[in-house]
Design goal:
The complex is a heterodimer of chains A (about 270) and B (about 200). Chain A has about 270 residues and is of the alpha+beta class. In chain A, about 20% of the residues lie in helices and about 35% in strands. In chain B, α2 packs across α3 and α7 crosses α9. The chains are: A alpha+beta (about 270), B mainly alpha (about 200).
């Protein structure tokens, strides 16, 4: 009350900030020019290389393991960070507990441009693959990820969502019961961050091919356009590959039901 | 010169040299990685400070800057020729840092060096009492309490000495938004400083 000071005037604040600018003791600037140049040359010199994981912490870029190693790694006691790659999706399993998961579950804006199924196919250049077990989706988005300098270094993504039903309960934080992401090609454009102490993960088989299964809240990092978004995943996730695509199905269902849905996926050649 | 992990020789932000930048950016866009490295060298200091202001962690800031520059290189085909390079790349850096900032557990504080000897000889006006009592640390602490959007606009304009148009480009907002956001931020900052100075005053009695 009477002890409260009057705020400084605008001019005084302006002067104080101007003086502060000359007194800030900034942390030492690291020289990153060489590392940046080396990274760029490496990617340019290796056209078949996995796309640069542009925004993931470099300290985490420790190891790439091909999909064949997935089954051997799944369920193993992990003493170190592991990175698994399954088509367009990388999976990192970190020891310990999660310290800072994002709080935002995917919104419409995060999933791309909302379009009709036909428009999604026209824009993406491939038809959406739809699980017959779920019927037609009620919402569809299309987006891309710029993964390199060349115009063709773009990975298209179609996302379909189905409303919650008695058989497909709602995903916490969303209005959907199931979300299926379909990524074109092998470029890595998504990363799942799992934690050994709080997530359960393991193998699954979809149409005789190895797939990856996880439960528990975790983080999904997506390249969207030339931006990177971090999302909280609240459901159980099945990831598999088929016909040059990587699929990511999120539901609250168990592994058996998720695989049943995955195995009902067929390309939607004619969605009209 | 490096003292106790802090850079004391490079306290001024790097100023833009638009014509040279445009030429280097054009060469980089044509695949000249060396030209891009020169741009990195030119702007890594201000880029690092922007990243650090967002994440408040040196390691994360370094990673953010490195990845942001790589990302910027691959985004050069979408960079408008002739546009200022510095704010464009700083926007990428800030976005990159923001994406990482959520995972930082312990945030480092902004540090200030001692004031120059001989300043502040004049008797303060009553209205200046708050600032006279509130030293730079109080001002920094008040700045830290601002919401990020307010803090960043103040930091860009004052601490990094960026122009209004550069700030607008770097924050990806209209110049008018910079004006209004800065105005609001300064009102909040003045209130915070007065509050903090009151506490100091009461505690010192």
């Amino acid at each position: 009350m009477s002890d409260r000071m009057r705020p400084p005037t605008e001019e005084q604040m302006d002067a104080a900030l101007a003086e502060l600018a000359g007194r800030v003791d900034w942390p030492r600037t690291p020289d990153v020019a060489t590392a940046v140049g080396t990274t760029i040359r490496a990617f340019e010199g290796s056209p078949s290389m996995v796309a640069p994981r542009l925004s993931l912490p470099s300290r985490r870029r420790t190891l790439l393991v091909i999909a064949a190693a997935l089954l051997a790694l799944a369920g193993a006691a992990l003493a170190a960070r592991v990175v698994i790659e399954l088509g367009a999706v990388a999976v990192e399993v970190l020891p310990g507990r999660p310290t800072a998961l994002p709080t935002n579950v995917a919104t419409s804006a995060d999933l791309g441009r909302e379009v009709s199924l036909n428009d999604a196919a026209a824009i993406a250049g491939f038809p959406a693959a739809l699980p017959a077990a779920l019927g037609p989706p009620d919402r569809t988005w299309v987006d891309d990820a710029q993964v390199g300098v060349a115009p063709d270094q773009v990975v298209r993504r179609i996302v379909n969502a189905w409303p919650a039903t008695a058989d497909v309960p709602v995903l916490p934080g969303t209005e959907a019961g199931a979300v299926l992401m379909q990524f074109e090609g092998e470029w890595e454009v998504a990363s799942k961050e799992l934690f050994a102490e709080t997530n359960r993960y393991g193998e699954a088989i979809v149409e005789g091919r190895p797939a990856f299964w996880t439960t528990g809240e975790h983080e999904l990092v997506l390249i969207a356009g030339d931006e990177l978004i971090q999302l909280l995943v609240t459901g159980n996730v099945l990831i598999w590959q088929d016909a040059g695509f990587t699929f990511r199905l999120e539901t609250t269902l168990g592994r058996h039901e998720a695989v049943r849905i995955a195995e009902s996926v067929t390309p939607a050649i004619d969605v009209g | 010169m490096v003292y106790d992990g802090r850079d004391v020789s490079d306290q001024r932000p790097v100023q833009g040299r638009p014509s040279e930048d445009a030429e280097l950016a054009a060469r980089a866009r044509d695949g000249d990685v060396g030209a891009f490295e020169e741009l990195v060298t030119r702007y890594q200091a201000v880029a690092f400070r922007v990243a650090w202001l967002v994440v408040r962690d040196r390691g994360e800031a370094e990673d953010a800057v490195q990845d942001a520059f790589v990302k910027a290189y691959f985004a050069l085909p979408r960079f408008r020729p002739g546009a200022p390079f510095r704010p464009w790349v700083l926007r990428i850096v800030a976005n990159e840092a923001r994406n990482r900032g959520r995972s930082v557990r312990r945030r480092e504080s902004l540090a200030v060096r001692a004031a120059a000897i001989g300043s502040g000889d004049a008797a303060p006006a009553p209205e200046a009492a708050a600032l006279e009592r509130a030293d730079a640390e109080v001002l920094v602490a008040a700045l830290d309490r601002l919401p990020e959007r307010d803090r960043m606009v103040v930091a860009y304009r004052y601490l990094l000495e960026m122009s209004e148009s550069e700030t607008a480009e770097a924050l990806d907002v209209a110049p008018g938004t910079v004006k209004s956001r800065l105005s609001r931020a300064l009102v909040r900052l003045r209130t915070e400083v007065a509050s903090a100075a009151t506490v100091v005053e009461v505690e010192s009695r």
